[in-house]
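Recap from last week: sequence in, structure out.
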Amino acid sequence: MRRENTNQLSSRDALVLMGMAGEPDTQDKARLDQFFRDQPGDAADAPPRPSRELRRAPSVRAPDDFRDSSNSASDMELISWINNNLPSNVPPATDLSSSLSSGLILYRLAESIKGLPTEVPDSVFETDGPDGMFKLFDFMLDNDVRIGNVSINDVRLGNKDKITQLVKSLKSWQDKRAGLVKGMSKQPSTAGPWLAVG
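Predicted structure tokens:
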């Protein structure tokens, strides 16, 4: 049989806790009743027990939260570069391991560098399956980003050294693309024998 108020001790519970186990006699009962009557307030004044549903929600980290002691100066430089090149609707990178381990930020960064967004939804990267990682690595291989000996598991497990290698490869790919565009804009267009001037 369950008591009405589970937060309040029964007379028997109080006796056991006070070391008077066994059947209470009338004198013990009277003393206990007096004790509980003399207490200031009543059970209604006690704060409610917190429910399990009121767990603290995880906090969202601000973009500047990557400036902590675990990130070196070169790490912070790469994280800043990542965040400066990400579209505004993508959560910022906070480190070079766990925040990039889903592959979403790396994929959106590669898309941003290429300048062509794809139709790959964020949800592909939020599942535990390998689909998002396959999309990421396929995209990088199709666009000649050097991935070296970095594996899908290296990214999924948050291997900082391997993810840093990928980020540096994406940065050099961006520099290479910018150099090509810059070089093409400097070349003068010359009239050849096939062009009639007149």
